[in-house]
Amino acid sequence: MIEVVSFGFLHARVPRAELVVDLRKHFRDPHVSPALRELTGLDEEVRATVIRTPGVPPLIDALAGVASGYLVGAPELPTRIAVGCAGGRHRSVVVAIEVAARVRKLRGVDVRVRHRDVRLPVIERGGR
């Protein structure tokens, strides 16, 4: 079983995981756009914005590959991949969903997605 967890670094501790991915510095935050700030990665406008961000599609492919490697290494053990951004509402949600979708294409793989912080209030801050 693979679990992909999205979370926000600014809300609580990093979830326990075999792999933790930090999206904060390398990928533009949709939070900086007033039109997207109150939306989440579950909304199509945010999803499209994150997917169009340079570097995000190859990162998603690479993370799906890493998950596949864990499945080969010890398929009987659960594996958790934690994907974090600042607030856990935008980038991490989209990346978690997309990674899970790619891994699900593998036969016989149970993939779960959990969004730890997506429903928490927006954290007012600067962003890039």
UniProtKB/TrEMBL annotation:
InterPro entries: RapZ-like, RapZ_C. Coiled coil: none annotated. Residues 2-118 form the RapZ C-terminal domain. It comes from the Bacteria. PANTHER family: RNASE ADAPTER PROTEIN RAPZ (PTHR30448:SF0). This is RNase adapter RapZ. It comes from Streptomyces axinellae.
